[in-house]
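Please think about what follows:
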Amino acid sequence: MVPHRFTTLDGYRAIAALLVVTTHVAYFSGVVVVTAWGHALSRMDIGVTIFFLLSGFLLFRPWSQSAMTGGTWPAYRTYFRRRLWRILPAYLLLVVVVLAVMPGIEVLPKHWVAHLTLTQIYWPELLINGLTQTWSLATELTFYLALPVLAWFVGKKHRGDVEASVRRQLWVLGTWFAAALLWLVMRTTVPAAQAFGVVNMWLPNFMDWFAVGMLFALVHSRLRLPDPPRWMTRLNALADDAGVCLVLAAGFFLLATTPIAGPYTFGEGSTSQAFVRHYLYLAAAAFFVMPGFLGTDGWGGWRRILASPLMVYLGTISYGIFLWHLFVLETATHLLGVPGFSGWFWLLWPLTVVGTVACAHVSYVLIERPAQSYAHSDRRIRWPWASRPQPPQPMPQPEHSPAEPSQQSQA
């Protein structure tokens, strides 16, 4: 039986968040189109791919394991409560702050409606400065809603029959992967889909990324049961060699930094370039995270780095880093008078990182951690600024003589 280990995943969250921060600073400064290293920075939006793989793995694993073993089926109400309390409180605060106080933007009522309901990806040209990164959060929300339906379909038959359940799960995940392929073909070749530009942000465009994370969850759960298939044990052995995984990930990523993956600006380029970029990102991210999902050889150097105190800390506040970095970047450049696409990457990047980490820490302590405690415990939010409850004091006993029983004893 293969022991499960998730202590490295905070490190992956930290890396993914910092990749997203870096690529946005690079775009804002304009270095993505003027230098070779800027071309590489433009591809660091692969951090979104890593986030989607992590979500697919962590959220699907309990259902996958239960379907194979016939164990207790995860409660849908608990799942939705924890997901919504995980993402909404900090996100809603960000929306209010950005739309209310961030300088240099024009806010209309429809911006409030779309962003407060996390439906901005379904409104053409409605993303607004300071909140453009939240498109992926809206996509994640759609995945949260779709996953229980898919999990129900997975567990509808063959629960407790390990091999039959594995085959059913592989078939379902393969269908998801194929559906994403068809969606990518449709949206890059059909003129009507190309005209409606926001379709590239919808869940069908990324179902294959989520599906690969879910495949890792399936493999992880099956390896913990007797006699796993040979292809799974080989995959597990590959994950043990973190060096090989990282070299393969770097190779696919370097290919993605070349012109075969499309332009270095916001456009996708041709249909072939969109395909190449999409699947190079997927391959690079999959090999990159594999040592965190699978493997049994204990702690190597790479895993020690991922589980180091700094990486765990940054991973813990990574959601806040993702949320607040554009607000920090746009506000700092406005205060400093630095226009967009004028360079200054090496000034803006450390300012953005430091300011974002500070905001993310405050967000985690004041908003996220209390909200998570509410979702996971007795549903009472323990806000940091609230006074701590005092321990109950014994009730004073009425004075009476030894010959005269107290009212409590008479009762």
